[in-house]
């Protein structure tokens, strides 16, 4: 048995499908059957957690799971069965635009009276809400840019060069201390959160899980390479203005210098990345493969759809003075001066 120790332990189940999957990963039970999967809500907790577990085997995995499970043929069949309703639901409900330019141009228009999560946190958010936001986002940001790296072998020419250039920046441009996942861990330490990879999986709501699953779904399928480029373009186009508001929120709530720095870094970097992605990655891809135009648009639309669902969940809870998490995080713990928390050990106790 080849067990890896780099990932978190398996989480608690959220239904019969995820429970069966967890038992299978532990060698203590069979996989869920197709009827159970077909009956599950595509955007519900049970299916989304099960899908997340399947996808995470392609990243760092779980410390209590055999690393060879990554390519288990029976498990891959179950993953495909989980993916199908998720993808179909997005195609049916999220699709708005037929062409990439239409979808991406619309993202460039900022509403005069914005009411999203970054607006709320900037204008009226409290520190506990900032901490919840960071915990929800940690499932992605502690592996930031990793899902998008899957597309690199599927591109060539101008698109590949542009994508590699942006990813190089995301991975710190050769400096470990500037890797964006590292910077987010520093942000979490400033907020007194546990910086261990995957620590907040049990606490994270299904809406945030779905946003991470979307990237993995697109990244792990060559046929969906256009959709992943659309997702990436959407993230880069919307990141700079949103990060500016979040940097202001960090300052207003006293989140800490590393928390401020994470979003300040994204304001500058993503303003440049947006141009590279539109000019080189998207345009380069469609120059080589014009038939992927609709897929790029779909990737952008699906991203916006799931982000809107997450925003609705967060703002609905916060405006009711309730936690947005399944398990609220503990009160902030501040490391002593001169003893910064490191990745995997800092902040809040497990």
Task: Please characterize this protein's 3D structure.
- The chain is built from 14 helices and no strands.
- It has helices at 16-25, 34-39, 45-56, 73-93, 100-107, 117-123, 127-141, 146-149, 157-170, 180-190, 206-219, 225-253, 257-288, 293-319.
- Helix 7 runs antiparallel to helix 10 and helix 9 (157-170) runs antiparallel to helix 13 (257-288).
Give a quick set of tags describing it.
350 residues, mainly alpha, 14 helices, 60% helix, 0% strand, globular, disordered N terminus
Rounded mean pLDDT score: 91
Largest sheet entry: none
Coarse morphology? globular
Low-confidence stretches: 1-5, 335-347
- Terminus-to-terminus distance: 27 Å
Helical/strand content category: mainly alpha
- Helix share of residues? 55-70%
Number of helices: 14
Strand content range: under 5%
Assembly category: single chain
Please provide the count of β strands. Answer: 0
C-alpha-based Rg, rounded: 20 Å
Q: What is the string of helix and strand elements?
A: HHHHHHHHHHHHHH
Short description:
With 350 residues, the chain is mainly α. Helix content is 60%, strand content 0%.
Lay out the secondary structure.
Layout (H helix, E strand, L loop, with lengths): L15 H10 L8 H6 L5 H12 L16 H21 L6 H8 L9 H7 L3 H15 L4 H4 L7 H14 L9 H11 L15 H14 L5 H29 L3 H32 L4 H27 L31
């Amino acid at each position: 048995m080849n067990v890896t120790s780099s990932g978190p332990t398996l989480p608690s189940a959220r239904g019969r499908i995820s429970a069966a999957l967890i038992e299978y990963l532990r060698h203590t039970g069979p996989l869920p059957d197709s009827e159970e999967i077909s009956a599950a809500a595509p955007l519900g907790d049970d299916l989304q957690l099960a899908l997340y577990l399947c996808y995470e085997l392609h990243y760092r995995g779980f410390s209590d799971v055999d690393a060879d499970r990554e390519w288990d043929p029976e498990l891959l069949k179950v993953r495909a069965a989980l993916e199908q309703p998720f993808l179909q639901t997005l195609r049916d409900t999220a699709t708005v635009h037929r062409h990439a330019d239409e979808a991406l141009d619309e993202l460039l228009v900022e509403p005069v009276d914005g009411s999203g999560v970054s607006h709320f946190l900037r204008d009226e958010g409290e520190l506990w809400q900032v901490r919840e936001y960071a915990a929800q986002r940690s499932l992605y940001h502690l592996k930031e840019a990793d899902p998008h790296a899957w597309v690199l072998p599927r591109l060539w020419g101008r698109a590949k060069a542009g994508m590699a250039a942006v990813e190089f920046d995301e991975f710190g441009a050769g400096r470990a201390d500037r890797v964006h996942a590292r910077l987010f861990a520093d942000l979490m330490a400033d907020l007194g959160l546990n910086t261990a990879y995957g620590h907040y999986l049990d606490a994270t709501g299904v809406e945030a899980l779905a946003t991470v699953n979307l990237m993995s779904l697109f990244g792990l399928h060559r046929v969906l390479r256009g959709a992943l480029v659309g997702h990436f373009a959407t993230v880069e186009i919307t990141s700079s203005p949103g990060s500016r508001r979040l940097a202001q929120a960090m300052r207003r709530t006293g989140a800490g210098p590393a928390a401020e720095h994470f979003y300040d870094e994204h304001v500058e970097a993503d303003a440049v990345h947006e141009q590279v992605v539109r000019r080189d990655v998207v345009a380069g891809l469609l120059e080589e493969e014009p038939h992927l135009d609709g897929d790029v648009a779909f990737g952008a639309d699906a991203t916006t759809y799931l982000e809107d669902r997450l925003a609705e969940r967060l703002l609905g809870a916060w405006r009711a003075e309730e936690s947005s998490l399944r398990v609220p995080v503990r009160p902030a713990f501040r490391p002593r001066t001169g003893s910064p928390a490191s990745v995997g050990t800092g902040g809040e106790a497990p």
